[in-house]
Write a structure and sequence with these properties.
single chain; 120 residues; mainly alpha; Cytochrome Bc1 Complex, Chain D, domain 2; 6 helices; 57% helix; 0% strand
Length: 120
């Protein structure tokens, strides 16, 4: 009986581990309207986002990845947090240096990028 219980426990544990490995469902694109409805939970970050990020990161035609669109952000996220923060601070493509956030610290950029990338 003990062997059966241990074997059953091992099978159930293996199934749980395999299920956990499946991770999240595949990312799907979101619309600019869905993107525009998102905002950081933190009031200070929400203010910075409204002033500096939202005008580009909720409009598809700007070329900026839409806030909350994991399809667009996952490719960028693979570059690593340090590279994304560096791009925000120094500018990239059509984004000006600092992303027009004159009050942002490096930690603010980290938090804003994580929020926009859907990883907060």
């Amino acid at each position: 009986m003990r062997t059966l219980t241990v074997r059953t426990l091992a099978i159930v544990s293996s199934a749980l581990v395999l299920a956990a490995c499946q991770g999240q469902p595949p990312a799907k694109p979101i619309t600019p309207e869905e993107s525009a409805a998102l905002k950081p939970a933190d009031a200070r970050l929400a203010g910075l986002y409204e002033q500096a990020c939202k005008s580009c990161h909720t409009v598809a035609d700007t070329g900026a990845p839409l806030t909350g669109d994991r399809v667009q952000w996952d490719v960028r996220w693979k570059k690593g947090e340090a590279e994304l923060v560096n791009s925000a601070i120094n500018g990239l493509g059509g984004m000006p240096a600092g992303g027009q956030c004159f009050a942002c610290s490096p930690d603010d950029y980290k938090a804003l990028i994580a929020f926009m990338a859907g990883r907060e």
